[in-house]
Amino acid sequence: MKSKKASLSLSFMILSSLFGVVLSSNPVLALDVTVCKPAGCDYTVIQTAINAVSAAGGGTVTVTDNNIYDELITMKDGVDVVSDPYKAHIRRSSGMGREEVVSFSGAITCDLRGFEITNPAGGAGIFMDGSAPGITATIENCDIHDCDRGAGIRLNGVVKPTITGSNIYSNDRAGIATAKMMATDQVTSGSSITIKGTTIGGSGQGNGNAGIRLDGSGSGIQVAIGGSVVDDANTISYNTDAGIRLEDIDQVSIENNDISNNSEAGILLIDVSTVSPHIKNNDIHDHTDEAGINIGGASNVTITGDNYNSLIHDNHAGIVFYVSRNMRLTGSASSQPVSITGSMIYNNTKAGIAVIDNVTGTITIDDNKIYQNTKSGVGIFNKCTAIITDNDIYTHTSAAGVFTGDWSGTPPPTGTGFYRTNGPASLTIKRNKVHGNIAGIRVDHASGTINNNLAYGNSMVGIRFSGDNTDPYAPFTSSWGITEIMNNTVADNGSYVEEFLEDRGSGFAYDAIYVTADPITGLTRNFNDPPVGATQNPITIKNNIVANNKKAGIKYCADNSANDRSYNLFYMNFQETCATGGSIDCGRMCRSRTLGKCYAPDVNCCSEEESWVHARVAFPGAWATGEICGQDPLFNADYTLLTG
Question: Are 64 and 36 in contact (CB under 8 A)?
Answer without folding.
Answer: yes
